[in-house]
Design a protein that fits this description.
The structure is a homodimer of 338-residue chains.
Chain A lengths: L5 H8 L3 H8 L7 H13 L6 H8 L4 E6 L5 H14 L5 E6 L4 H11 L6 E4 L9 H7 L5 E4 L10 E4 L1 H14 L5 E5 L5 H16 L9 E3 L4 H13 L6 E4 L4 H12 L8 E5 L13 E4 L2 H17 L9 E4 L2 E3 L8
Parallel strand pairs in A: 1-2, 1-3, 3-4, 4-5, 5-11, 6-7, 6-8, 8-9, 9-10
Antiparallel strand pairs in A: 10-12
Helix pairs in contact in A: 1-2, 5-12, 8-9, 10-11
Amino acid sequence: MENVNLKTIADKLHLSTATVSKALRDSHEISNETKQRVLHLASVLNYVPNPYASSLRKRVSKTIAIVIPEVDDSFFAEAINGIEAIVQGKGYHVLIYLTHESFEKEKAIFMDFQSGRVDGVLLSVSAETVSTHHISNLQSHQIPIVVFDRICDEISTAKVCTDDYNAGYTATKHLIDNGYRKIAYLSISKTLSISGKRMKGYSQALTDNNIPVKEAYIVECTLNDEYNNAVIRNLLQSKSRPDAIIASVERLTTNIYLVCQHLQLKIPKDIAVISFSNLKTAAILNPSLTTITQPAYEMGKTAASLLFKSIEKKSFPLDTVVQLFPSVLIPRDSTIKK
Amino acid sequence: MENVNLKTIADKLHLSTATVSKALRDSHEISNETKQRVLHLASVLNYVPNPYASSLRKRVSKTIAIVIPEVDDSFFAEAINGIEAIVQGKGYHVLIYLTHESFEKEKAIFMDFQSGRVDGVLLSVSAETVSTHHISNLQSHQIPIVVFDRICDEISTAKVCTDDYNAGYTATKHLIDNGYRKIAYLSISKTLSISGKRMKGYSQALTDNNIPVKEAYIVECTLNDEYNNAVIRNLLQSKSRPDAIIASVERLTTNIYLVCQHLQLKIPKDIAVISFSNLKTAAILNPSLTTITQPAYEMGKTAASLLFKSIEKKSFPLDTVVQLFPSVLIPRDSTIKK
């Protein structure tokens, strides 16, 4: 099939391309009769306007981007569904970009956005992100950004997140209340704000209950499963083995359970486990997993709604909005009373 | 920050925009000295070429799209990682589009692609997709497409998939060998080719072992968890309750386990379960889950490699390639011998 463009239509109707273009844009300069001839032929030939040409004129791509570290995480999968629930019906496309926790990749993606490829961005920063220059740079191009879940306090825009400090505190307090005292904390990044806040809640809960914070019980994990298994094995084979673990991200659950299987440690008898997680399989794990669960779907919906408010009305003050959603502790067998 | 464009640079250097444009494209018409002045200023001003304008000239978006039904599935999460492993270093962007199993959404996305937004497409069709006109239409616009996992036999292009018939046969044979005879099959779509092929393998294995294929044991599920729980509960409360279930997609595993918990049925004593699944938690479920697992990462890599062959060399004959990857049965506790 040949490419149908303005010229194809113009040639067939013996009109100029300018006239065809104006007719398609419903210009008052063109007669109704001509408009109808053009629209009819455009429809018959299955003419699709070139959005690049159209974007050059209108600077509207009718596209929003979701920039997230990974999709292999139930929180993001659910949040995406929440976002799409809002975008549905707005006539927008949703593009998902993955940073794989790389700051370089995040910067490259944002650089690309400067050219007007998208009308707005929903962002959850990578674990490596240490500065926000790429973000403010894009904002200066009048492209609105809303951050969700993994926010950066320094960014001046709307933030949709959970109360990570409280969630970390609640998780730790739950373990203490159930008789656990030697509580380890697995983080994935020292720079990531959610990780830092969750850990502060953990430290404070220990301190409030007269339990010293032990350096050896705070372990930094990565995206590499083999590395994670090794450091967890190390932790569980150490002389002063913890009696409970808090996993600050979902993906570490499988690592912990598998290492315990391998070392023949029973959960929760030998070691209790609680994880920040939206895993659908939490209730059918062996044993069922106590989780701190975020309202991912609602957070996605709220972030997308805020973004569209700004897209539709440039004066909407994004920078004053902070939406905090409480997370929920769902107690299951992995942390039952000692 | 003001928008830096060709005119900004031209004005500051007292050149025409045409000269600046040619200098940036390294045209032989422009002197080296002028080129260096232009490039220097472009760098100082942080000039980003407009890809829309550039696309209009070159018809190259340096972008490929992945069109899949959902991300809340370990197969697709792993396949995306495989695809990105190939795209990495090619200087391309990857956009992920979700159809949420809707044929209408899939068609709308493909319509949008006709305008040159992407240079190539990796597709896994929705459960609802019943015709392939939207796909051949895009192919006629010279945009290469590779289908993976959920293929359509009718599409004339490269196909990367697993041997779904054999996998269905192997899963069924495994259950029969372990003493199960009343085997139910949960599908998610009658039109989806992988679902149909897996079911044919199931039927054939039953027939080869003199077990009649029972209509009541073939149950169609949806994307709705409540609906799925209801039909599975129905199946497990029927007079002639099956003694084994094959789940043709990963997402049904949680439904089956939860319904069994609720009905106090023990897996595998009361009912064995095997699932097509790449779930990382398969080994830590209660009980651990026997799976048919696809080499998702490798399939993603292969699909992306084929697509780039076609993008880089228009004459590469995509339509003759079919890459079949064997799936692997991983036996665990959910199907142990009766």
